[in-house]
């Protein structure tokens, strides 16, 4: 059945200058909340742009896009509610908030903690992300909403609200195409999943029947699957059912412990500006988390992280966040980085390989946001000495997020200080979490030991399970059998 | 252990004055009338220098714009000056300063030959004029953000803004590139790399695409009909005055065109003025400067400046004192606004 908001793709192929074939003969009928999943560079963002009619100049399109059965070359302004693209968040949405929030449900403004007066340019990034999303959602007559990683820029506490909002739009008759890597929030709200790989559709069907091929399932879905629970509960995990299936068997946490290295430095209160001395060790990943959710608290966690890295390095100045020159080719960036830090040839590409396979001859900005972020990770993770990681998984697919957590936790080559809004990464990657409230350290310990002091909880903990990894709850042999 | 320095670049706050686009557009309109209507090198030089002083005094997050603007304006000025000197014009008169080898093309006039004082004045005026225009545009790119320009353009032109939106983002795009270049140099990469022009154009396109401040309120039907009528009347008036052999008003073509453009802008503003940001105290700088310049220009017959504005190139240009004082209002207020922070 084709209703007036169904988007039909008929052997759609897209060729982009400098990138080659990004989509190859894609055919699918998209309706409701359609979640586009896959590895970085699989073509989800290009698919959204093709539907919106916003491909860059020089793009070549073959095949057909239909809306409600009629062929289109792109959505008109009245059909399209908006394109919410996480890569746009660096651009301030300037204007008077009263004008920008015209027509927006006041309840949403309150739910996302947005001010109603003042200038939008003064808002922090997570509020700009919320503003973009709720403005796009405030167009009741629009038939289609396109979302490209809309949750990435949001504060963790607002992600469930955003997922609920997106779900409610579909209930009102809007078709939502939603490319998202934070599957733990997105999957439960999706009607349909399209998994893309190598420029084509690998799997397409109802969300309840989806079994990820190229990316790991979110923790709750993976646990439900490993416990042999009914398929319908994988997307909508039932805490009671899971707890019942788990029984009284205690979680096994000890085997994940890795001994950290020698003492690097002691951050004394006069230097760290915290209320207690902190020991920083080699090969230890320390996560810095603000106890509060206000903007000054978020800025404070970044400042503490930079200060700790400077102390661990014995440097006089705070380290700058890494900026990758976007006009250089990926190959040039890798070569220059290896030369600057006297790394063996190929070190950067070795670190990049598991996350993405960018074209070395193309400029950095010609790659997808995820591929650019993967390159930033590869550079940061090969830098000698203590390292600073600020949101290293933003825009990275679930497979890459898991790989980064593994690198930081299980194969740490240097001391790392991490600040992230990715809660799964935070608890999986860090040996130790430091919860700070302005100048005082509220908690300092292993992730499971300080869970109660965290402002936001990872997915398994929200189900009432005190564990970080599914492997800690389900025997490895069962997991292997399930995966086969 | 040494204390890490907390003053890293990304934690520094910029306390430059913040402006909205409309007051600067009004100033630009008045300044454009002055610059395009006079050939007095003193006035043109004063406008150019005034813009440069304002750019330096106001600074801000887009202060890096001044560098390419300086380069472009000096190249343009040199080109105009060379053309002014190189193309021989009998009508300019004055003493012969030196004689260049000459050649003439039947269809394109005479090049080289005797270079007169009048020709030198003409070349200087043309050079200063191009300098002043580029400096004015550069100043506007520096003081108002891309978002500010896009919002104004959206209010006035609506969806047609998309056609020229990247041009309005050039200032921010250049500043973004410079900021990134500084960071990448510090990281050891040695700059941004690639072609600067292509990179800035690409960034400007991306910024324009990412802007999402489009107004959603629709004007009422009455306002829309009234606006359309006003726009038609203004266009009709322009067409009639352009072809009228015995004009009722002594307005130059530039003045007439700018008045019509102003009317069309007023139509857009009338329909959607509520979408514009509220003016700030800092906006008094361009508004007062525009008012002073407009008074001096339109009152030139009474102040005695009129004779000094269109000059004979064979003589030294006289100084229109009132107009020069009005031109100086902008840099003086800019210095005051910059120093206040």
Distance between the termini of chain A: 35 Å
Q: Biggest interface, which chains?
A: A-B, 54 and 47 residues
Distance between the ends of chain B: 35 Å
Instruction: Output the number of helix runs of chain A.
Output: 18
Unreliable stretches of chain B, pLDDT < 50, 5 or more residues? Answer: 1-14
Strand coverage percent of chain B: 5-15%
Shape of chain B: globular
- Output the structural class of chain A: alpha/beta
**Major sheet size, sense and barrel closure of chain B:** 2 strands, antiparallel
Uncertain runs of chain A are none
Give me the secondary-structure category of chain B. mainly alpha
Strand order of the largest sheet of chain B: 1-2
Structure annotation, total helices of chain B: 15
Mean model confidence by pLDDT of chain B: 81
Radius of gyration of chain A, in Å, reads 23 Å
Helix content of chain B: 55-70%
Give a short overview.
The complex is a heterodimer of chains A (484) and B (341). With 484 residues, chain A is of the alpha/beta class. Chain A has helices at 44-52, 97-100, 106-111, 125-137, 159-171, 183-186, 219-226, 232-235, 239-246, 269-272, 295-313, 330-340, 347-352, 369-382, 398-410, 423-429, 459-462, 476-483, and strands at 7-16, 20-30, 33-38, 60-67, 70-72, 80-85, 144-148, 175-179, 192-197, 200-206, 263-267, 278-281, 285-290, 387-390, 416-419, 432-437, 440-445.
Any descriptors?
heterodimer; A: 484 residues; alpha/beta; six-stranded mixed β-sheet; five-stranded mixed β-sheet; globular; B: 341 residues; mainly alpha; disordered N terminus
